[in-house]
Amino acid sequence: MAETYANYKELAAAEVKGVDYDIRYHKVNGSKTIIFTPHGGGIEVGTSEVVKAVAVSFYNWYEFDGMKPSGNSILHITSTHFDEPIALKMVCESLYSMALHGYNDTSNKHTQVGGLDYNLRDRVIKELKREGFSAGITRDRLSGTNHKSITNRTSRGKGVQVEISTLQRRAFFINGDTSRANRINSTDEFKRYVKALQKAIK
C-alpha cells in the first residue's frame, strides 16, 4: 500500500507539529549509541515506551511520536525514506543504532530482528530467548537490510531493526490496553524485554 507521505518534508507541510505529531529526543554526553523509533506514539504503539526504557540515561534516544486520536498510520514514513533531520543527524553521528518497530500480528508473540549489524542482531535474539521470548532473524520485507534504511545510516553503515508483533506489544501493558493513557502502566513482561535489549547492546 502506498504511503501518504514520501518523506518528512511532505508530512511536515500537511500535519501540525505538537498536535498531530511531535519529535522528542535526548542526547547523552559521550554516547555513540542511539535507540530510536521513527514510528512511535500511536503509529506502532509501544515502541516509544521500549525506546526510552532501554536507553534510560545511558544512550541517546529519539522518537517520532504520532499523536492523533486515531488514524496515526497516515504518519508512517517507510524507513528507507525517513529523513527527519534530527533523527538523521543523530543516527549518522552514532556508531551503533537500534530501531524499534511494530508489525501487525495479533496471533503470535514474536520479535523479528534484522538490520545489517549481524553481530548485534544475533545478540538481541539470544538475549530475548534467554528471557523466554520468541525471536528470530527477519527474512522478509521487514529485514532492515537496505543500506538506505535509517537504521543503517550510522557511521559504520549498519544497525539493528527490532520488529515486535502486535500481540507482544499488547503484553507490555496492564490488561493489554495500549491506549496512550495506559501506556505508563507496564508489565513484568515489558521489564524483561527491556532488560534483554539492554544486555544485548551493552
TrEMBL record:
GO molecular function: hydrolase activity
InterPro entries assigned to the protein according to its UniProt record, in alphabetical order: Gamma_PGA_hydro, Gamma_PGA_hydro_sf
Entry keywords, A to Z: Hydrolase
Domain of life: Bacteria
Hydrolase listed as a keyword: yes
Protein name: Poly-gamma-glutamate hydrolase family protein
